[in-house]
Amino acid sequence: MTTPIPYDDESPSGQYAAAPRSGTSEQSRGVALILSIFGGWAGLHRFYTGRWKTGIAMAMTMGGFGIWWVYDLILIGAGEFRDANQLRLSSWEPTHAGRGAAQSRDVELLVERVDSLERDLGEMAERLDFAERMLAKDRERRSISPP
Known about the structure:
Elements: H1 29-39, H2 44-48, H3 52-60, H4 62-65, H5 67-78, H6 100-144
Helix pairs in contact: 1-5
């Protein structure tokens, strides 16, 4: 017999979910905390993290008569609250599902391209400056040379 994880949703087979996995959730800890502060008695933070069964139970008991609500506030604030996939909510910033790493890689590529364009533009500016100085010298020589 496995020991249930406190206040965890059961899996479809009726068994309790497996032990918490390592890793972090894509959901924002900050959003969950704000939802818990203002709508925790209704379980809004649990709906947000995909734990809808316990969210319904929390809404029906008005946050477990306030005790469950305070317990979840402490868990979220401490960074120990977990989503439906048993991943910890540790990031304060919201990310888009599945796009966090891809977007950061895209940003890195764009930064590299901008840096490359800045270097190219700098080289072109130097060449233009050199060409202008050569033309100015040529004009100067023509104006000074005897007719």
